[in-house]
User: Fold these one by one.
Assistant:
Number 1:
Amino acid sequence: MLMATASGKIILLGEHAVVYGQPAIAVPFRALQATAMVAARDSAPVWIEAPDLERRYRLDAASPGDPLALAVRNAAQRLRLPLHGLVITVRSTLPVASGLGSGAAVCTALVRALAEFAGQTLVPDEVSAIVYESEKLLHGTPSGIDNTVIAHDRPVFFIKGQGPLPLAVVRPYTFLVADTGVPSPTRHVVADVRAAATRQPERYQPLFAEIGATVRAARALMTGEAEGELGPLLTRNHALLRELEVSSEALDTLVVAAVSAGALGAKLSGGGRGGNMIALVDDDSVEAVRAALQGSGAKAVYQTDFGDD
Ligand code: PMV
C-alpha cells in the first residue's frame, strides 16, 4: 500500500480579484491535511473510498462530475497506469467548502499516491495541472490558485494563467485561522461576483484593481523590498471583500474581534460568505486573539506559521 499527503492552503490576500487577472498570495496550511492510499487488489474494478464522507463507489460508476474520479483517470493516463485492481482511499481533516483548499488537497494527495504506486515522479507543475482539471468540476471557473499552492507546497504569488511566481518570504509570520463553521461552496460565491461584476463593471473593476494593488504592496513587504506593516493591508483587503459582498456577519464579527483583541490585521480567506478567516498575530497578541475568536463564535481556531525557513 502506498500513501501520500497534501496540506490545505490559506489565501493571504487577493481572492476573487484573482479570478479577474489580479495577483493573489497563498501559503500552505499544514495544520490540516488530506491523505490518499492506493492498494492493489486482485479483483478487477477500481474502488474509490472516502470514509469521512461515508462514500464508497466504483470508478466506472462515478458520475461525470466527480472530481476524484477525474483526478484518478487523468493521473492514471499520465502515469500509464492500468486502471484495474486498485482500492484508492482518501481521508481529510480539512473541512469542506471552507476556503482551506480541501478539494484540491484531496486530489493532490490522490495524484501523489498514484504516482508513488506507479513508482514514478510527477513534478509539482504536473500534479497541479491534473488537479486543476478536477478543480474546474468543483469550482466552475477556478483561477488555479488552490492547486498551484498545494501542489508546490510553498508560498506563492499567483497570477491566473501563469506558473507560481517566487515569493521569498524574509521574515516569519504567525496566523490564526478561525472557522465560522458555515460551509459556503466557492462556486456559488464566484458566480454571484461574476454576475454582479457583469452588471456593474464600473463599480467592480476598480475594486478588483485596488485588491491587486494591496496584494502587490503585501508582496513587497513580505519579500523585504519595502518597509512597512502587513496587518493593515489584510484589514484593507477585508474591507474591499465586503464591498464585493462576499463577507458575512459571522466573518465580520470574527475580524472585528481579532483586531480589537490586538491582531495586526484580519480578513476572510477563500471564497467567503462562510468558511474561514485569518488573523495576523505576534507573540504578544496570539493568546488574546485566540481567546477573542473562540469567544466570538469560531467553531475551531488553528495556528499556522511560515516564512524565514
Ligand atoms: O477555494 P477557496 O474558497 O479558497 O476560493 C478560492 C479563491 C477564489 O478567488 C474565491 C476563487 C478562485 O478560483 O480563485
Number 2:
Amino acid sequence: VKIIKKIEVIKEEISLLKNQKEVIGLVPTMGYFHEGHLSLIDIARKHTDIVVVSIFVNPTQFAPEEDFDRYPRDIVRDEKLAKEHGTDIIFYPEISEMYPQPFYTYVTTEKLSKVLCGRTRKTHFRGVTTVVAKLFNIVQPDIAFFGQKDAQQSVIIKRMVKDLNFPIDVIVGPTIREKDGLARSSRNIYLSPEERSQASIIYKALTKAKKEVEKGNRNAEEISKLAYQIINSAPLAQIEYVEIIDDTNLKPVKIIKAGTFLAIAVFFGKTRLIDNIYLMKKK
Ligand code: AMP
C-alpha cells in the first residue's frame, strides 16, 4: 500500500491509472479502523480495480466543543489493516493540505443537513459534504463507498452527487456490529465499562421495533414510542432523538412503508452514539 500525503502527487497517480482504464474506488474515513471501515474496503475491493482509502480527521465537521482533538488516531495500525484488506493507496493529507488558508468555499446540502443529527450538530454536514466534494475532485473515483451506520450522511452524499452531477456511483455498505449488537464506531472507546454494557440497549430497541413492524404494526408513533421506552430503561442513556423517517427526504413518516427507517441518537455519559435500522426495505 502506498501512502500519499500530497494532492498533486495523488492526482498524478490517479491520472496514470485512469489512462490505463482502471476503475477507481474511494473509501473516505477518519481512520482508527474497525470492522465497519474494513468491510467497506472489502466491498470496494470487490467492485473496483484500485482501492483508495482516505484517512483525514476533518476539522470542519467538528464543532468547537466537540471531540476533534481527542478523536482517536493510529496511522501505523491503520496502514497495516488497510494493507491486509488489499488497499492500493492511502490518501493521508495534512490539514494545511486540505484547507490552505484562506478557505472560503463550502458545499451545503440544504434541508437534509438540518434534520436529525443536523439539529444539534449545525455545521457538521456542511463539513462532511465539503470534504467529500474535495476528495471526489482530488481522487475522481468511479465508485465511492459509505456505511449505513451513518444513514443521514449517506443520504446527503447521494443527494450531493445527484445535485452537483458528480460522475460517481455511491455504494452504501451494511452496518457492522459488535457481538451484542452495538454498532462499531471509533467513538466506542470513549465508553466506560458500565456505559459500554448499557449501550447494547440501542440495538435491542432497533430490533424490537423492526419485529413489531414485521408483525404488522405500521404506526410510526407507536413504534418510536416503543423504541424510546426501551432505550430509556437504561439508566445511563440520555436520548437526543428517536425518529422514524423516509430514506429519500429524511422527513418523519406517520405510516411505515418501504424505505422507512428508525434513527436514534443517544448519549451515554459524554459519548454520543447513533444507529439506525430499516423498518421496511425498498424492494
Ligand atoms: P468514519 O471514519 O467514522 O468517518 O467512517 C468512515 C466510513 O465508515 C463512513 O462511511 C461510515 O459510515 C462507515 N462506518 C462507520 N462505522 C461503520 C459500521 N459500524 N458499519 C459500517 N460502516 C461504518
